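Entry type: protein chain
Record version: 2
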Amino acid sequence: MRHVIASALFGTAVLLAPPVLADFNDKNPITATVTGATPTGYPRVMVEGLNAIVREAYPNSAVSLKPNSPGGGVLAIAEKEADFTATATGTEIRLANEGRAPYPAPLKGKFTYVMMLYDVQFMHFLMTKEWADANGIKTWADIAAKKPKIRLAINRPDNPQTTIGGPYEVMKAHGFTIEDIQRWGGSYVLGNSQIGLDAITDGKADMFMNARNLGDSLVKDIAGKRPLLWIDGDPAKVEQAAKVFDFRMDMVKAGTYPFLDKDYPTVRQWVSLLAGAHVSDEVVYKYTKAIAESEAAVQKIGGSMSPFKTAGMANNPANLPYHPGALRYYKEKGLVK
């Protein structure tokens, strides 16, 4: 009888034993689609560079880009139309989780956090000196008080990070809204930052609100032909606006552009790689590992990825749940406890 009981207890213990984790430390190829990057411009360069690193780490992998917008990328991974999106910020994460425009329904639980790619996306708040002088505008408070007619170059609202998560909140913090621009007789030039800067160059816009790398050569070139100014503001109010979507206020230093005679406050944003909840642990683990163990190669992608550090990959300002594959790698390396 004792033997029977012991056998029964041993059998129970076996049933309760934790499953053995699969070993992902091999060179077997993976298949993944990365979205969130526009067909042209730096986001595509960044994603193609990251994918190339993964393909080199795991030969014969089929890792490809599926162009999309930052907002559309989160929707795509939630609906299993892609595996990763590489241009998500706190704006897309919160709006998607809550089902707020441009998302038609809550997507909470359908996408997960993989890694922070960079935190050096600075919103540029520029105006032409000609327009500013004509309307007596130096600050956000001046805009709110004087209600000038503005031809504003800004991104489309379906790119939430450079509209809803940046300019819209800064406007609200200073006492007016994006809708007020039209109420005051103004208009919009909607499109990415290149379209906006072209509009400034061609005299079709008075004001530009979008993200560029600090010290951007194109901004400097335009300023040499059509003098520009930075819209000044209250750092506390810009900080208030930044915190809405888990960003922070930072100062653009004097001299960053020739027309900056002092430091100016702006919204500093971070950009992350997310994965759909449907993506296997192996695929996410291997993608994460390839990037983490290729720090120098990632930095060589250039642009916003130049300051990339493996140690910062696990930073997660939005506190979105990590994908189990990414979390496994981070715990192995001590990046997450």
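Comment: Residues 42-57 form the longest helix (16 residues).
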